[in-house]
Design brief:
The complex is a heterodimer of chains A (about 110) and B (about 120).
Chain A lengths: L8 E5 L4 E6 L7 E8 L6 E6 L2 E4 L4 E4 L5 E6 L8 E9 L10 E6 L1
Parallel strand pairs in A: 1-9
Antiparallel strand pairs in A: 2-7, 3-4, 3-8, 5-6, 6-7, 8-9
Chain B lengths: L4 E3 L2 E4 L5 E6 L6 E7 L6 E7 L2 E5 L7 E4 L6 E5 L8 E8 L9 E2 L3 E5 L1
Parallel strand pairs in B: 2-11
Antiparallel strand pairs in B: 1-3, 3-8, 4-5, 4-9, 5-6, 7-8, 9-10, 9-11
Classes of the chains: A mainly beta (about 110), B mainly beta (about 120).
Amino acid sequence: LAKTTQPISMDSYEGQEVNITCSHNNIATNDYITWYQQFPSQGPRFIIQGYKTKVTNEVASLFIPADRKSSTLSLPRVSLSDTAVYYCLVAPQNDKIIFGKGTRLHILP
Amino acid sequence: DTGVSQDPRHKITKRGQNVTFRCDPISEHNRLYWYRQTLGQGPEFLTYFQNEAQLEKSRLLSDRFSAERPKGSFSTLEIQRTEQGDSAMYLCASSPQGQSDSPLHFGNGTRLTVT
């Protein structure tokens, strides 16, 4: 299973755009890239998923370069409520999903 | 979509006791996963089911842990002879198999405290 590397923590300010980059050098051909958000005392919540290029939904954008060895989650105009842990995962569709430690994002007023 | 439901939300037990947790997945989801999470760590994979079949069990899971999904719907996770190291949040997730853009849907977990 592909291993992911992402920053342990990040700080940003309200209204800013936040980009969290994840490295997955050993990604396999049939692997998808999925990001989850987790608040304290809650289960992780799906944010966005992609295979290549760019994916955008109402919450975030996901940028994936052609070699797929990394991906960047972009959160536009963050607010205090975006303070959470963000996990980048790489796995075949609906296969065993292994979480890393994630990135603790702290939004400051 | 009523979401993934876990019961109980909290459980306090004494060391050596047995505990059982229940997970009700989203009704049309045939995949069901169990994870364990301790403070400051990401969710740790325990096991997962395809309908009633248990497809994989983590090597980290001792023989004191067992999970079932007898009718391919709800699942139970039992821990026998609990130890203080079992204290954690136990998370359940479900997903439909074989569909694109079908991520895991998590419940809000059962927090176990072993005293």
